[in-house]
Amino acid sequence: MDAITIENLTKRYRDVTAVDNLSLSIREGELFSLLGVNGAGKTTTVKMLSCLTEPSEGDAYIFGKSIRKDTAEVRSLIALSPQETAVAPKLSVRENLELICGAHGFAKTKTVLKIKEISNLLGLESVIDRKTGKLSGGWQRRLSIAMALISEPKILFLDEPTLGLDVIARSELWELIRSLSGKVTIILTTHYMEEADALSDRVAIMRDGRLLVCDTVEKIKEKAGTDNFEQAFVRIVKEMKL
Amino acid sequence: MKMLSFAKRNTKEIIRDPLTLLFGLGFPIVLLLLLSAIQANVPVPLFEIAQLTPGITVFGLSFMTLFSATLIAKDRESALLQRLYTTPMTALDFILGYTLPIVPIAVAQSVACYAVAVAIGLEVTVNVFLAILFIVPISVLFIALGLLFGSILNDKQVGGICGALLTNLSAWLSGTWFDLELVGGVFKEIAYALPFVHAVELERAVLSGSFSDILPHFWWVLGYSVAALAVAVLLFLRQMKK
């Protein structure tokens, strides 16, 4: 079953077309990566799919619900972990999680239960009562993902989740993302090719707001005639004509 | 429930910034003491305690503008708002969630001002309690201004516009520091076309028990509060859709 169906999605900002006539579908439980150089339209696509910005043309359906007409329903199905960590720095880890539970209207008992469950899943118990602003970048990213996951979303948008993290923190986060594979549909945007290679079921490469290719990492490497995914990405972005 | 959860978080964010809070609450008291000391040495009718306290109390509310604008601007910059926009919270949840936590802080500030004023000679009457009660609608005006500026300015700009410009303008145009009659002309006309002097005169009328003088000033304050809140809501909704 398709979790997301995108039909001719377009976003224009005055004379700039950030996303141009994008059409693709993402299966339920899939880990799908959106790749592209800066300005390719990845973040704008995520913003449209998460109802943060309205498309200029076209539509997308999240489990059959339109991002234009059924925004309230769509919001109850999705969660976003933005590019920035997007946590409240003066609150503790627990209070940040409570805030998100409250924003989703969870009752107190469910909130307590969900916090216990998510902090166990993401290994946050040791920092649960520490002030978020005092935590390292890796812990803050972990919390950011926990805040997205706590609402039990069917679709999770991870916008550059490992940006600025050290090797250890990145590898730990990869493990975490892998552990979610199949349980929740994940749409990942990243600049790190090895990240997309290691984690994705399928990859879409965009340039200037348009879709260049959408396939598995292996098939994309095959199409580009190389064994190295980074090289394949560079060739496709530089050479592919639309 | 969603709004309360957000309001709770906002209260914590403000209270956990003790330096700003102490400055916001303490500065008006320092001014009250300082100007009363000047009055004791060189009597000026404007600085008599029954005239001065309402002015200082209203001046203190300009810090509420700073608190609310800073909070919103920081949330916008940190992408926390972006995350919360993808939850089922409505625009009303956000607006009330930002507004309501600051009202008790505004009341606490005016209680502190009046308590100090009583300690240095203000007569305790029922009017003191009424004056504190009338702080509520006046505080909505200042909080709405914060919501408005926080929706269009960044954190640094808020510091300049609300922290420096608005606090000074609202003070000069309030008739607290100097008699507007002495300046007269266009300055006086501008002052009386704006809500700050009406807020101070409203408080003075309540404190002195001149109840017939309350309503004309009250309508000015209420009108500006409603207008500021309406513009703030529009600007907040606009940036929500950006």
Shape of chain A: globular
Shape of chain B: globular
Please name the two chains that share the biggest interface, counting residues whose Cβ lies under 8 Å from a Cβ on the partner chain.
A-B, 34 and 24 residues
Mean model confidence by pLDDT of chain A: 92
Q: Which H/E pattern describes the elements of chain B? A: HHHHHHHHHHHH
In short:
The complex is a heterodimer of chains A (242) and B (242). Chain A has helices spanning 42-49, 71-77, 93-103, 108-121, 137-149, 167-180, 193-199, 217-224, 229-239, and strands spanning 2-13, 16-27, 31-35, 57-62, 65-66, 78-81, 155-159, 185-189, 202-207, 210-215. Chain A is an alpha/beta fold.
Question: How would you describe this structure to a colleague?
Answer:
- Chain A is an alpha/beta fold and 242 residues long.
- In chain A, 38% of the residues lie in helices and 26% in strands.
- Chain A is built from nine helices and ten strands.
- In chain A, the strands form two sheets. A six-stranded mixed β-sheet of chain A has the order 6-7-8-3-9-10, with helices on both faces.
- The longest helix of chain A is centred in the middle third of the chain and has 14 residues, at 108-121.
- The two termini of chain A are 29 Å apart.
- The model of chain A has no long low-confidence stretch (mean pLDDT 92).
- Chain B is mostly helical.
List its traits.
heterodimer; A: 242 residues; alpha/beta; six-stranded mixed β-sheet; 10 strands; 38% helix; 26% strand; B: 242 residues; 12 helices
How are the SSEs ordered, and which strands pair?
The complex is a heterodimer of chains A (242) and B (242).
Chain A: E1 2-13, E2 16-27, E3 31-35, H1 42-49, E4 57-62, E5 65-66, H2 71-77, E6 78-81, H3 93-103, H4 108-121, H5 137-149, E7 155-159, H6 167-180, E8 185-189, H7 193-199, E9 202-207, E10 210-215, H8 217-224, H9 229-239
Parallel strand pairs in A: 3-8, 3-9, 6-7, 7-8
Antiparallel strand pairs in A: 1-2, 1-4, 4-5, 9-10
Helix pairs in contact in A: 3-4, 3-5, 8-9
Chain B: H1 2-15, H2 18-41, H3 49-78, H4 80-85, H5 91-99, H6 102-119, H7 126-152, H8 155-172, H9 180-183, H10 185-193, H11 195-208, H12 214-241
